Amino acid sequence: MSVSNPAHAAHFFLLIFTIASFKLSYCKTIGCPATENQALLSFKQSLEDPIDLLSSWNNSEADCCKWEGVFCNNLTGHVDELHLKSYNPFLGLIGKMSPSLLKLKHLRYLDLSQNKFKGKIPSFIGSLASLEYLNLSGAGFHGTIPRSIGNLSSLRTLSLQDNYKSLNIDSLEWLSRLSRLEHLDLSYLDLSKANNLKQVINKLPSLVELHLKYCGLHSISQGLYDVNNSSLAILQLSGNEFRSFVVLRWIFNLRSLVFLDLSHNSFKGPIPRFSNTTKLQHIDLSFNDLNSTIPSWLYSFKDLEFLSLRSNSLHDSISNDIANLSSLNTLDLSSNALSGKIPREISRLCKMQFLDLSQNKLLGEISDTFGNNMSSCFLGSLKFLRLVDNQLSGHMNDQLGELKNLQFLDLSRNSLSGPIPNNLGKLSSLSDLRLEYNKLTGNLPESVGQLFNLEMLFITDNMLQGVVTETHFSNLTKLSYFSASENHLTLKVNPDWIPPFKLKSIQLRSWNLGVIPPWLETQRKSLKLLDLSSTGISGLVPSWFWDILALSLTHNQLRGEIPDITTVSGNDPRFVCVGSNKFSGSLPRVAHTVIDLELSNNSFSGGLSHFLCDTTSETNALEILNLGGNNLTGELPDCWMRWPSLKFVNIGNNSISGSIPNSIGFLANLQSLNLYSNKFSGQIPFSMHNCTRLMKIDISDNEFVGNIPARIGTSLLNLRILILRSNKLSGKISSDICHLNSLQIFDLSDNDFFGIIPRCVHNFTAMATKIILAEYETEKVGYSYSAYSFLQTLLESASISTKGTEHRYDTILPLVTNIDLSRNNLSGDIPKELTSLVELRSLNLSGNHLTGSIPDGIGEMKQLESLDLSRNFLRGEIPAGMAVLSSLNYLNLSYNYLTGRIPQSTQIMSLNASGFIGNQLCGPPLTSHCSDEDEAPTPIDKGADGDGESKVDWFYVFLSLGYAVGLTVVCTTLIIKKSWRETYFELVEDMWDKVCVYTRIRWTKIAARCGRSS
Prior knowledge:
By secondary structure, the protein is of the alpha/beta class. It has a domain at 27-168: Ribonuclease Inhibitor (Leucine-rich repeat, LRR (right-handed beta-alpha superhelix)), CATH 3.80.10.10. The chain is 13% helix and 20% strand. α10 (954-976) crosses α11 (978-1013). Belongs to the RLP family. Residues 1-27 form the signal peptide. This is Leucine-rich repeat-containing N-terminal plant-type domain-containing protein.
């Protein structure tokens, strides 16, 4: 090619030079300017970096464009973006933000979210004029958001979400200057006083996404009437306690709206019609108080892909009209009160991909809907089916195996029975299969081994039985979570078997193993959770087990010593539960990341000092510490300030001595303290009143002395269980104890308390209110640390003396109500206020010096199962109302001064006669018969008017008048006749001497009898 014209030649060479320059600019890496390099190093030096997020930022690599999180412009080399978000939920960059960032003149993107910065958001951030993206969500800043952010005129995305509620806004005026803003997230900020919110939104013409979750907007809802923003496509207003849709009428006219989240509010009444929002694909109205059926206008949304009405107050059944939603892609009606059967029409919706009807009251046989009547297009489209926590029954149908694109199947927590269909092995797309907590029987089908995409398999708590072999896992190369506890399965694989999977979680509790499976060694690098509890394994534990993050080996025959439990990787929480084995030696030291340590019922020996005090960390994360039932000795060391996260402490049933150290008061999060059956002495420390979250104190069977600290009654207002039994405590029971209105178990028995029973006991309102045992739900999605910790709280138990013997309660402990003041020196009457505790199940006041009569109102205590008033000085008759105590199955009134006939009822006649001896009683269940004059006490017979008053008996009126007249005549005669008066007084004096002698003999016999019986 020739170029004859010089001008053309010049242009040609200029073009070649330009192209070459562009090629060089792309081929050659342009380093960042030295000023920007130094600015980033200064930024790093002002911070602590415990997770090494900035570890690559150093002088050994002079080009900052190669540092982690730093992105530069390919043409200029200037720092363009900083991606410094922390992905560690516990740690991040710490310190104050350096102004050196101002030297990054070309910075467009800045993400500092989820870190631990200190102080306020610096005002100089408003000088980063080129910023288009700013994310400070959860970055640790506090205080007022600077108005200078309003200077960032190029900003398109602003996220200031604050889950910690540390930030506040004094005005929103500065937001209105961000005219290019497209994405705004102020979630969890308190906007309750921002009355100009409407004006601000209207001045953001480009706004496409608006996230205002949990911002307290209900108090300014009147100011949201007329928002006018035509560009909004994504709107989140959840958790703002809106009560009426009227205040949000502007939403109904957002023609561009695609995504709408109004969940977790307080909307009442019917679901309104979103008239002009025809582009909606996602509607979430869950967790409200809506009370209508599903409205027909929803059928008009042909593009609707997600409908969620979870946790509303919808009480209707699912309408068959649901079939009109022919374009419906996603249907979520979970967490309602829907009842009846699932309409068959649902299984004929051809575009259905996501179906969630979980946590309702749906019933009927599962095959009625998901049986042979499913349409072919439904079988081909469904990807997600969740029916968990309903009342479905019957057998699973083989046609379930024809849902060829199904990826998630959850039928757990129902009443399904019969075998698991072999056809499930045909679900080649299935990644998650959950069938736990049903009544499934038979063998685990070998076809499960063909689910080559399966990642999670949960079949816990069924009635499966038989042998599981290698075939069941043959093609499960992707399996990560396997939960099959509480079945009757036996594992039989070759000793040299190498599984095709790398599991993160294995739960085989209650399987028949016998030995620790050798193939577990192949899972060593991936395994995070291992549960082999109650599997009959014995011997020594492989050393690598102690590196597993969550380990449960309880109720086996394992032995040996436990090494120190150290941090494995990063700062991941650790759980070690090996109780009820044969481990010995001294207690292991634990890393600061250990959350749950359960070493109870083993043979550990030695003291606690090295365990509690010789730690490398100033504070530790331990929440559950269970060392009960070992051979531990020595005193309790005074270094509890290093364990501020502790919630559950059990050192019971050891041989620990000495007093409780004052540092126990540093455990501000403590909820349960168990020091029973040791050799503790001294007084209950005053510092314990700082543990204001305490719900249980059990220090029984020790040698504590002194009074009950008054501050317990005024500071520990969450206390539900207080057991001080079998100590040497003394003094009066202070009325301050009555402030504990949450108290359900109150046991001061076998001490030296004296004085009266406080009259204010009616303030124990938890004993007068019906208790419902809460049903805790733990989602088993993969592996949840919190769910695992919850299993340990189920170990909470208490020993209660009731029905004449000692019982230990655990799982139903929240239902137990008990007052035991027996074997003290209490005196006075039984306060009638006790009878207002109508939900009390056990009352024991035996072995005191109580006098007076049994309160008449005791018949109102309908829940009483055990009543012991024996060995007191009670007099009078047994109240007739006791005959109506239908729950009473233990009654001991022996060795008092009760008289008369025992009230007659089938319940009382079935009781043991020994509970009535040592009195002057007659009638069943005693063999002594009553004379005719021993009337059986009966409740007052109320007349038709119900006033309970008896008619006037004039015979007794005149008899009383005659007695009064006769007594007057005798007294007058004695006054007038001196000789008669002297004779009378000599007679009275002689009789008094005889009574004194008789009384002394009688009390001697009573004392002797009490001594023998005790």
